[in-house]
Amino acid sequence: MLKMLTFSTIMLIYISGASALICTIGQNVCGNTCYYPIASQCLEGHICKIGQSVCGGQCYFDVGLHTCVEGHLCKIGQSVCGGQCYYDVALQTCIDGHLCKIGQKLCNQQCYYPIGQQCINRRWLI
Description:
This protein is mostly beta strands and 126 residues long. The relative contact order is 0.07. The chain is built from no helices and 19 strands.
């Protein structure tokens, strides 16, 4: 439980359990850090600038250009495959964490076209 005590006219002491944090009057606490709420905000335990959002533990600003997908910062419209953002969902698909072109299948972690190629014993053949 976080308790706030006025120590003097210029500082505050925040006490949480056995630890204490000294902040200036006008500051708030985010995690174990003092910050000024006029310029910053506390989001998911991270201090970010006003107007930013948090994705994957990091602050980002271009909320009109980026979005958070599965904890990854991607451009709007992108999806995540194998921990990476990819762009053209009309041309690409994700199969077991591997990015392949639409119409392809996966064989031994490699993409192949099932028309003209086949996968036998985890190897694709022409």
